[in-house]
What we know:
Blueprint: H1 8-26, E1 28-30, E2 34-37, E3 41-44, E4 49-52, E5 56-65, E6 72-81, E7 86-96, E8 103-115, H2 123-135, E9 142-157, E10 160-173, E11 198-209, E12 214-218, E13 224-228, E14 234-242, E15 252-264, E16 270-282, E17 290-291, E18 314-315, E19 317-325
Antiparallel strand pairs: 1-2, 2-3, 3-5, 4-5, 5-6, 6-7, 7-8, 8-9, 9-10, 10-11, 11-14, 12-13, 14-15, 15-16, 16-19, 17-18
Amino acid sequence: HLQIKNSEEEQRTYKKIEDETKKKKKSVNFGIGNINIGQKFYINYLDVYKFNKAEGHVIQLDASYGNMSDRIRASVYGGYGFNDKKPKYEIMTDISLLKSRALRLSFDGYRLVKPIFRELEGLGKIENTIRTIVFKEDLFDYYYSGGFNIKLTGEILPQLKIYAVYNQEKNQSAIKTSDFSIFTPHKPYPDNIPIYECFSSSLGGGVIIDPNEYKQIDWGDGTKSKVKMTMYPELKFDYLNSGSYIGSNFENRKYSLYIEGYNNFNSFINIRYKIGGEYFSGDVPYQYLGYFTVPTISNSVTELFYTMNYREYAGDRLYRINFENDF
Length: 327
């Protein structure tokens, strides 16, 4: 075979790319909310402090390793509440068992304070701290939860994914430990409501059918991105079973079925939708009931119901139709 030599200009370009890649691997950069050490290690600096009525003042730190295209990803969180005097932690890993990432194993071990009927993400955490210490409006009630979750996910076809999951956790009620506020220290917070204290152990699985076509972008630095090329709806089905045969304090089953997706018609009409519901049978502890997500100031999550208040509707049967448009 005839070997074609690179021109001097091409050689200089390749050398420049190689030098920049090596530089990125050793660099330290401040991103939006993160300190980026190299290309794969990140430390969150916006979430070092938080406050709520159950834990009081909390100092915390979370860090992560790996990008979406890496075979191994991990994150770790540690925090301490100075009023409830309890340490909290979470360790998460995601390992691709095959080079194609068609089979993944994930683990999540934790001891945390969780809001009832809400998962706080991103700006929602910062927002609740500000509203609490400034306006004395803690948005949520809380409980202690400690346990682990193991999940095995397989991609049978590009359009078909299945998963199996096992989790167990111990839940305990939290109490109000502080009435701190910058402007109204004399005004008390409402008491934190109790939960059904229990030990939960569950087995389950699910199916995701996604008929959309994707293209993969290789950025040349070891990271890759998937871009959705079509806009067909996805079908998601989940099943979870808790019972005494695996050590749980109660017996129930949860079924979940949703059709969801989005369509971009033009720059003004971008509709996201979610249609479906959840059905529980058996004894369902209060903190595990189905619920609707209500908005807060930052609205850091999607699929919100704007006419409902926090904890206004929760139950063992949930049916929903969501349509949102992002202008």
